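As noted in the main text, all predictions were made from sequence alone. Below is one such record, for ABC transporter permease.
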Amino acid sequence: MSTLAPSAPTGAVIRTEFKLFRREPGALFWIMVFPTALFLLLGSIPTFREVGEAIPGIRLVDAYVPIVVLTAMLMAGLQAMPPVITGYRERGILRRMSTTPVRPGTVLGAQMALHGTAALVSAVLSLTVGRLVYDVALPRQGFGYVLALALAICASLALGALLSALARTQKAANAVGAAAFFPMMFSAGLWMPVQTMPDILARVVELLPFGAAAQVLGEAAAGDWPSWSHLGVLALWTVVLTAAAARWFRWE
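Prediction:
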C-alpha cells in the first residue's frame, strides 16, 4: 500500500487541473485552433502553394508545417501555462497546497502534461488539415518525427515551467511570455524559414530549442532521420530548463 500512496496526490492534482483546463476556452483556442487557422490562412496565399526559389523543390506551405506545429507548443508553453501557475501563486492556492503531500514537481508536471497533450492534438490537427486541404505529405520518417515532436514539446513546456517558477504575478508572466514568444517564433522560422536564413544566422538559431526543433521536424518530414546534434540540443535545453524550474519554483 505504501508504494501506491505517493501517486494519490498526483492523480488528484491531474484530475483537478484537467477539469479546470477544459473550462478555459481561450487557452484551448490559442493552442489547438489558432495554429491550424494560421496554417489555413497562409496556405490560401497562391505563392505558398507553388514551388519557389527560396527553398528549391519545396512549397512554402510544406516548409511551414513544422513552424505551425511549433506555434502550438509556444502558445502552450509561453502564453497559456505560466499565467495559470502564477495565478495560483497570487491567490494563495500554491501556499495552501504546500501544506499537503503535493510537491512542486507534481504541480508543474500536471500542467506540462495537460498543455503538452493539447499541443500534440494541435500538431495532429495541423498535419491532417495540411494533408487534406493542401496535399502536404505526411512525415516520411514516422518514428523520427514522433521523437522530434516529443522532445520539442518537452523543451517548450520546460521553458514555460521556468517562466512559471520565476514570475511572481500573472501580469509578469504574461509580459515575459509575450516578450519571449516573438524571438522564439523567429528562431522557429515564422518570418523566415531556417532553411532560407544566412549560414551564420542559421547556425546560431539551430543552437536554440525551437530552431533545432524546426530542423528536426523538417528532416523527419522529408524522410531523413533527425540530426542527432539537433536532437541533442533539444534534450539539453529540456534538462537544463526543467532543472532550473524545479530549483527556483516557489509556493509563494
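The longest helix spans residues 104-134. The chain is about 75% helix and 0% strand. These features were considered when defining construct boundaries for the mutagenesis experiments described in Section 2.9.
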